[in-house]
Design brief:
The chain is an alpha/beta fold. It contains 6 helices and 10 strands. The strands form 3 sheets. The protein has a 6-stranded parallel beta sheet with strand order 3-2-1-4-5-6, sandwiched between helices. A two-stranded parallel sheet has the order 7-9. The mean pLDDT is 92.
Length: 205
């Protein structure tokens, strides 16, 4: 399949690109800075651009079967980068006739699903504005009319892929999950439609 990955230079985005290429998919990797993305693979196309630049976003979306996002921001001040960038992605998908969107968000985006340490301590102290825009992003996706899944991982680790994880509709069932397993699940969602229109939490063991 042909996949566009937004946020491809981030830790989870890179793993998603690697795993997709290993499975034989054609990948368009979109990132603000693409220096860390390997450029030699025959099935990889790299687009460097700003998620707020609609024409660059549309260039990445054109001709794809599925669009995936692992976009994240580190800006702790008020911003709308995720929500506005996602609006650009959705607009491009509609104009280009691409229907399936798989997006990584995070635990806590539903407001009561972050657990004590993450939801009650980390989010208020360090991630208040980031989480506020993740909530705006979720609203944009819910209103898109696309085929979509938004996944909610807790703390992300750099551990090896296990391909064993637990899915729930409420709080994550464990405090962490390897990024490799998040990427694995996102690729499965290309064809597995049981979670369409939902916000499943994913967690390790």
């Amino acid at each position: 399949m042909k996949i566009a990955v937004f946020g491809a230079s981030g830790k989870t985005g890179l793993l998603l690109v690697y795993q997709a290429l290993e499975k034989g998919h054609s990948v368009t990797a979109f990132a603000r800075s693409t220096a860390s993305i390997p450029s030699e693979h025959r099935n990889l196309r790299i687009i460097e651009g700003d998620i707020l630049n609609y024409e660059k976003v549309k260039e990445a979306v054109t001709g794809q079967d599925v669009v995936m996002s692992t976009l994240g921001v580190s800006e702790r001040k008020y911003n709308t980068i995720l929500s506005d960038g996602t609006r650009n992605i959705i607009r491009a998908m509609k104009e280009c006739g691409v229907h399936r969107f798989i997006c990584m968000s995070s635990a806590g985006v539903l407001g009561n699903d972050g657990g004590f340490i993450f939801g009650k301590i980390m989010v208020p102290l360090m991630m208040k504005q980031i989480m506020a825009d993740k909530k705006r992003q979720l609203d944009v996706i819910r209103e898109s009319g696309l085929e979509w899944v938004v996944i909610r991982p807790p703390f992300l680790t750099d551990s090896p892929k296990t391909s064993k994880y637990r899915i729930s509709q409420g709080k994550p069932l464990f405090r962490s999950i390897p990024r490799n397993d998040v990427a694995d699940f996102m690729l499965k969602l290309m064809t597995d439609k049981q979670y369409d229109g939902q916000t499943p939490a994913i967690a390790g063991y």
